[in-house]
Amino acid sequence: MTRFTRRQTLGLGIGAAALASPFGQAARAAVPTADATPPKIDIESGASLRVLRPAKFVPGDETAFNANTKAFTEATGVQVKVDYQAWEDLRPQTAVTANTGAGPDVVIGWTDDPHLYTDKLIELTDIAEYLGKKYGGWYPLAERLGKHFGTNNWIAIPLGGTGGAAVYRAGWVKEAGFDAFPKNTDDFLKMCQGLQKIGHPVGFTLGHAVGDANSFCHWLVWAFGGHMIDEAQKVTINSKQTIEALKYGKALYETFVPGTQSWLDPSNNKAMLAGEIAATQNGVSLYNSFKNAKDPNIAALAADVDNARMPVGPVGFGTETALVVNSMIFKHTAYPNAARAYLLYLMEVEQYDKWLTASLGYWAHPLKAYAKSDVWTIDPKVTVYRDTMQDSLWLAYKGPVSEKSAAVVADYVMVDMVAAACTGASTPEDAAAEAERRAKRYYQG
């Protein structure tokens, strides 16, 4: 194995400004850091890496990610090949990698996915603790998703999360009788009904969309006090609160544009850009699609597009979630130290703030110091996404994140329940009972 030369060590956090990525300027001075000693990592001689991650949803994400990867290679000599996978295909491909013990060394997977493969992953505690100390600590959501349930051992490093805020056409909302986006679910339903009456329906995703369907369906059920499991991991989805949520969802669905039960993650973006819907739930990418559109007619609409927190239901607090990109290293890698060094390098301010900024706030930060990044103040309409990782609930709420909870999410139990009730394929009572049956297969099996 090879110890880092001075140049290589600089690239992993000690004076790393000397190795600034070619993507853009040096790191933002506003991001505060504390003194912390990075873990010593001996990169294996001749190391090379394969990385699997989700396809870009905003162009700058891939541009900055590739630039940071190239800078890592220049700093360490480690060749890195990054493969970009379609969102719906990433989870199955991760499963193939885990089950065959071959393929990518590093997988940047979805929210709970590392917890499906805890016995096949390399521990990352030293990296996580160093980053937490240097950058103001991890948000609780990041800790839940990074640590193996019941331990303080980190099995994943969350890179960021895209928020589930509301995106809406302010002019149409005003035409429907609302000067501002509603803050509670009663007024939200009235607004959606008003929009439908003036010919501008809304649309929220009910298909097997990794991001948007999970965001909407979990928000809905939690807003009324329902949850899949409780703190003791007892399946609790078949409850009075869940059934009330599903009844509300059915009334809301009547204001939807047709076809939402088959929507995937790009679908609501396309519908809103086409003027087919007045409101949806999405990351900041949708607003930026208007703002940066090459079609001047679409770009002109950006002034009328705004973002807001999703309404609060009877439960009395916000129930948004986040789609998190969560990185893991599989034990089958021949170069575990190179992989660890790579993840550490990506999270250092000289690289991370460039990626955060190039992504236009689409992937919100998991480390508290990055709340000071300039990306959150450049455009006030983006600021609503700054606290995504601070405020969002986890998909296993109220219970712990575990292999069982991750399996329930991967099987779209919550999404299918909401879709069945909303569309009338099942009564709310039957949909909740079916979700209970499916969830118990994982929790009692």
UniProtKB/TrEMBL annotation:
InterPro entries in the cross-refs: Bact_solute-bd_prot1, SBP, TAT_signal
Main location: periplasm
Source organism superkingdom: Bacteria
Subcellular location field: Periplasm
Organism name: Labrys wisconsinensis
N-terminal signal peptide: 1-26
Protein name: Multiple sugar transport system substrate-binding protein
Record key words, sorted: Periplasm, Signal, Sugar transport, Transport
Chain segments annotated as coiled-coil in the UniProt record: none
One Pfam family linked to the record: SBP_bac_8
Membership in a protein family: Belongs to the bacterial solute-binding protein 1 family.
Keyword Transport: yes
